[in-house]
Amino acid sequence: MSDLVSIIVPIYGVEEYLSKCIDSIINQTYKNLEIILVDDGSPDKCPDICDAFEKKDERIKVIHKKNGGLSDARNAGIDTAHGDYFVFVDSDDWIENTMVEHLLFACKKYNVEMATCARYITDGHSTRAVAFNGPARAYSAEEALNEILLGKSMDVAAWDKIYVRNLFEEIRFPVGENNEDIAVFYKLVDLAGRVAHTGTTEYFYRSRPGSITKLKYSTDARKIIEKNLNSIENFLEKEYPSCMPSFYRYKTINIYALLNKYIKCEGTKKTQEFEHLMNEFRKNKSYFFNDDQTPSKEKKIAIMILLHLYNPYLLVKEKITGHK
Questions:
Q1: % of the chain beyond a pLDDT of 90
Q2: Per residue in 132-191, pLDDT tens?
Q3: Residue 269, domain extent
Q4: 167 lies in the same domain as 25
Q5: Same-domain status, 155 and 235
Q6: Is there a single domain that holds both residue 66 and residue 108?
Q7: How far apart (Å, rounded) are the C-alpha atoms in residues 216 and 86?
Q8: What's the pTM?
Q9: Does one domain contain both 77 and 143?
Q10: pLDDT at 322
Q11: Is 250 in the same domain as 208?
């Protein structure tokens, strides 16, 4: 295959992990790559690491830019890329050396414009779990959306996937928003029409305390998530009404995650924010408790939250274990 694949890597504050990430991309079995390293104004040694790699491999192009956040860095990469296909890799993660080859092969085999693979959840030393694995096959847009909303063989993340470049002719990631992938995944699936799964596990997602997903609770971030959930709901009601039960499950999981995070960060004082989250969860709780995929542990935590017993439980746990 002669298609040029652009791999876009947004980079900020990851000097400890960056070399491993870039090495995993350089060593891909598929060689026709354009590797775009977007230094998003990183304050550490990342800019120097990027420049050093650029000198070693002619396929690498480095963009140094003012800090604008993950979405802005990805968009800068998209605007610069020349590839027939795009792949996104987060700079604290790494990939199997066959990932691009297998993703591209799936696109060709199933004649699709978007493909995904499963991922390893890791702390950088050992694998904690394999997520979103599934059989090698193609899904219709409706099937793919249901798989994503139900948390089965794929999810909303921009990485661990490959895209034909024309899917990004008009789509860009929303600048200034965390959880930016929620805002675009359904648009990409709809445009692609069909999505393939490689049937393989190729992406190593590093779960670490300092990552964006571990930041403290933010009311502004909650409002952005709710805005995006409302947009998804309106879109699905019009274009894919059969996906609505799956969406309500997805919505409730997100509300529960926000509520859980708020309590861990702020406690259970009856603030306006706490009451808002509680009311939203109560309205949708049946989807949460009836979901077979929700771990029993999380259901027990949710019951404690609804009975106002969770914060006392956390205080006792913290005394015993030293952390919440």
A1: 82
A2: 999 999 999 999 999 999 999 999 999 999 999 999 999 999 998 888 999 999 999 999
A3: 216-321
A4: yes
A5: no
A6: yes
A7: 31
A8: 0.91
A9: yes
A10: 65
A11: no
